[in-house]
Specification:
By secondary structure, the chain is an alpha/beta fold. The protein has seven helices and 20 strands. The protein has helices at about 20-30, 175-185, 220-235, 260-265, 290-300, 315-325, 335-340, and strands spanning about 1-10, 10-15, 45-50, 55, 60-65, 75, 80-85, 85-90, 105-115, 120-125, 140-145, 150-155, 165-170, 190-195, 210-215, 245-250, 270-275, 285-290, 305-310, 335. Strand 15 (about 210-215), helix 3 (about 220-235) and strand 16 (about 245-250) form a beta-alpha-beta unit. About 35% of the residues are buried.
Amino acid sequence: MTYRVTILPRNITLTVEAHETILEAAHRQGFNFPYGCDAGSCYVCAGSLESGTLKIKTNNEQVHAGDGDDSNTDDVLFCLAQPLTDCSIFIEGVLAPGEHPMINASCQVTNITPMGNDTIEVELRLPAGKKIDFHPGQYLQVILDEETECAFSIGSIPNKERTLQLYVGFSDKDERSRRLRAAFTTGNVVTISLPHGNCYLKNLESTAPLFLVAGSTGISQIKSIAEQCIREQNDTTAAQRQIFIYWGTRTTSELFLNDFFLNMTKSNNNIHYTPVVAEPDATWKGRTGFVHKAMLDDHDISDDAEIVLCGSPGMAYAVLDDFLATGIKEQQVQSDVFDYAPRNN
């Protein structure tokens, strides 16, 4: 018998076999789970049972959530607890396999580059001596004050120079945008938290086709993932993965990284790039319309293909629905939108 355990407040899950404790299952599956003695003495792994039923293996006592004033649900040692049903537990400090710990850091704005159409490239330098890891495809939060955080996809990959790239579009009608424009000034120091997000490549050894589909400044996330793929293929002898990048914008002036991706395809014969403009001017000779329609017109999507969507919630869900209608499976598609803006089915 296998049970599903949801770990709050992170809302991550693991599976636990009937003969295992929750701690044993977490370690077997590569979770970073707090513990000390592994024998019920140190209380490092203590947390609460929010739903379901557990058994304490040392005395076979059962712990049931929702039993009114039963206080034994609030101080459970997960090194001794075995689930008897699917359940949810609360314990701080758990990281899923491959996750990096969340860090707050003060970064200096080292360079601002205008990219056209009121978009800028921001270069931030991380502090020396502080180890900060992230997966390409994740995002950071710029902390303006205790109540105001602004999310930006990281447009670069981890590097020795400790620099991060962001691509920021402004609208001066918005108060937060005006504050960000003031914060992103060369020499200023901004506070960030990272890494956020679960939309990144989980299997870097896969050779299945990879489709990276972005709208507007969602291309930041695509750039980071594509650069990671290039670095991985240069560092190994594995077969090259075919990568198809589709970038949709409203106008041609919004294609601020067009030359960058064109050069990427010239240097890497497994990477294919297609810009798609919704409202082209008379000089545009490329693809027009909806970006995902261009992708579907160009390819029969295989069952093993992986698709990453980057854009607004409206864009992501409209594209997802069209994909599902063609037979693409939902588990083939990932997007940060599905986590931070879930919709009711």
